[in-house]
């Protein structure tokens, strides 16, 4: 009698767990279209997993069905394992046209045993050259990790597993262009870039190691303003013109990220820790490249750093 009772309870628990998982599954095929690769991109597990494949003939890629004008988007990614030299896996936002805006995560592969380089960039009106690169503090090929972009009227923040790694502020008042009027789609891809990706192109893709596969899951755009034109009128949903959600159920979370003007002290500490320990390239420190003078936003960043140092010195003197 007891074994039968335990069996019945186990069956109920199993069925309940399956129902929970189905109800909470994130179906990528509802939000994403595979746009290129001739069959090398595939939805698996009923649409909850997306695999991109790269072989010697082609890579593959996808894009979101919706366009966004501001938002916070998240994607869990597991990168190409083993010898990934020459390959690039991407997750980014981009608008259309010759003067496009773009916010990039690019993962540059490497030979076995050497770390990936996370390459970030911000384009405004078709101009980039704002690269910051990082090593990661974990193996990004062993399991899925979460990568996020927050884009609001005040700043852009890149996150890895919830940790801020980079901030790009709106400094239009100082003449620095900022993405604010062009809607962007989310894109992802896996492609061959062995002319530059690994050690500046010195290490080429080893095709005998292929085909290469990167995996994506749990795309979240709930906190993004979907841009659309209805009868000639531009609207953003769920964001209202005031920056809060038009849906009462998500108004709190939407207003939090949309109205955020900067990072709090704890987030800024994490940002400093990441940049001190894991940043391997910062365009704002590349005086050889910008021999005629660093970009305006770089001098502003340096001034803020000096202000913070002076505050600490004054505080220490008083104590």
TrEMBL record:
The keyword Secreted applies. InterPro entries: Beta-glucanase-like, Beta-glucanase/XTH, ConA-like_dom_sf, GH16_AS, XET_C, XTH. It comes from the Eukaryota. It is found in: Secreted, Cell wall; Secreted, Extracellular space, Apoplast. Residues 1-25 form the signal peptide. Residues 235-259 are annotated as: Disordered. Glycans are attached at residue 110. The active site is at 102 (nucleophile), 106 (nucleophile). CDD domains: GH16_XET. It holds the Pfam family XET_C. The keyword Lipid metabolism does not apply. Keywords: Apoplast, Cell wall, Cell wall biogenesis/degradation, Disulfide bond, Glycoprotein, Glycosidase, Hydrolase, Secreted, Signal, Transferase. GO terms for biological process: cell wall biogenesis; cell wall organization; xyloglucan metabolic process. GO terms for cellular component: apoplast. Contains at least one intrachain disulfide bond essential for its enzymatic activity. PANTHER family: XYLOGLUCAN ENDOTRANSGLUCOSYLASE/HYDROLASE PROTEIN 8-RELATED. Belongs to the glycosyl hydrolase 16 family. Catalyzes xyloglucan endohydrolysis (XEH) and/or endotransglycosylation (XET). Cleaves and religates xyloglucan polymers, an essential constituent of the primary cell wall, and thereby participates in cell wall construction of growing tissues. This is Xyloglucan endotransglucosylase/hydrolase.
């Amino acid at each position: 009698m007891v074994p039968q009772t335990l069996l019945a309870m186990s069956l109920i628990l199993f069925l309940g767990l399956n129902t929970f998982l189905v109800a909470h599954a994130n179906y990528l095929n509802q939000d994403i279209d595979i746009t290129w690769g001739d069959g090398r991109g595939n939805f698996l597990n009923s649409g909850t997993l997306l695999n991109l494949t790269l072989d010697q003939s082609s890579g593959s890629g996808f894009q979101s069905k919706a366009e966004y004008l501001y938002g916070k988007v998240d994607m869990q990614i597991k990168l190409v394992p083993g010898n990934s030299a020459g390959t690039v896996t991407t997750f980014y936002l981009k608008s259309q046209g010759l003067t496009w805006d773009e916010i990039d995560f690019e993962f540059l592969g490497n030979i076995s045993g050497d770390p990936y380089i996370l390459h970030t960039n911000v384009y405004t009106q078709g101009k980039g050259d704002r690269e910051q690169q990082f090593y990661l503090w974990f193996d990004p090929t062993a399991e899925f990790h979460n990568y996020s972009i927050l884009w609001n009227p005040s700043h852009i923040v890149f996150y890895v597993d919830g940790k801020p790694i980079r901030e790009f502020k709106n400094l239009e008042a100082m003449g620095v262009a900022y993405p604010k009027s062009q809607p962007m789609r989310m894109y992802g891809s896996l492609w061959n870039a062995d002319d530059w990706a690994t050690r500046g192109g010195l290490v080429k893709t080893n095709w005998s190691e292929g085909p290469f596969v990167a995996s994506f899951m749990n795309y979240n755009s709930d906190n993004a303003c979907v841009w659309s034109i209805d009868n000639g009128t531009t609207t953003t949903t769920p964001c209202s013109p005031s920056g809060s959600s038009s849906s009462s159920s998500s108004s709190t979370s939407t207003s939090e990220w949309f109205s955020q003007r900067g990072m709090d002290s704890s987030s800024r500490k994490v940002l400093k820790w990441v940049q001190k320990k894991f940043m391997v390239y910062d365009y704002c420190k590349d005086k050889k490249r910008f021999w005629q003078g660093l970009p305006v936003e770089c001098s502003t960043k340096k001034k803020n750093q000096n202000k913070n140092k002076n505050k600490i010195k004054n505080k220490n003197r008083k104590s």
